[in-house]
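Give me structure tokens for this 287-residue protein.
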Amino acid sequence: MTEPTVAVLGTGIMGAAMARNLLRAGMAVRVWDRTRPKAEPLAADGAMVCDEPGEAAAGAQIVLTILYDGHAVEEVMAGVLPAMEENAVWVQTSTVGAAAADALAELARRHEVPFFDAPVLGTRQPAEKGELTVLAAGPTASREAVQPVFDAIGSRTIWVGETTEASRLKLVVNDWVLALTASLGEIIALAEAFDLDPRLFLEAIAGGPLDVAYAHAKAALILSRDFTPSFKAETAAKDAALVTEAARAADLSLLVAEAVREQLQKTVRLGHGEQDMAAVYYAARSS
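Here you go.
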């Protein structure tokens, strides 16, 4: 089976890592980013760097979007979809939320392009290793065409439906991840306020039913004050807002999610938006 040509639209932390793993899997990759210098380093890995998204999509059997939000994806793809190759498919991996995912699926339907709603779980390190978890929803008839892409960027694919169920599952998972991170920031701040070594908390939960490997990873960032981003606080704040918006639309009262959103937005206002979301610790430290 001939490997597909893939256009990767968006080459930030996640998109660049995806593109490199697609190249390692033997696929021809064409890349575009609104800020061209972000895409240019991929030329050394074998990617074709393009000036326009439509240029990247030309000749590609799969167009993969990994952009900041639903508005950015829609703006780019409104111009790309009419120019896509016959039988090409669109794989949408950005975290855009439920309403935007529905709108993007409808945009694809109007152009008669098969659409895969495929947000991913994971940050910089698993993305670079090709160990993301792909949450996928899309037409059964075209799944064989996109599976090699999912295999290249991730260690497993979870199929959850045929429309936009994957974006809804991503919101559910993000609600848990963001709450855990915000809670950890508060826990460390509270321990310090009590003149306790926060490592005692990690020792207390280690190996038991309360233990979570993710807590140890994020705690290490907070304790070292090394907030080199694997997932930026400003992006986490955006995703937290997507959770609360979807919850309100479903007539739910998610008080914890609302509080997490407020803490992450406060983190951004305090000037930590470009740092890792573990910097939510500073929101707890600021009255």
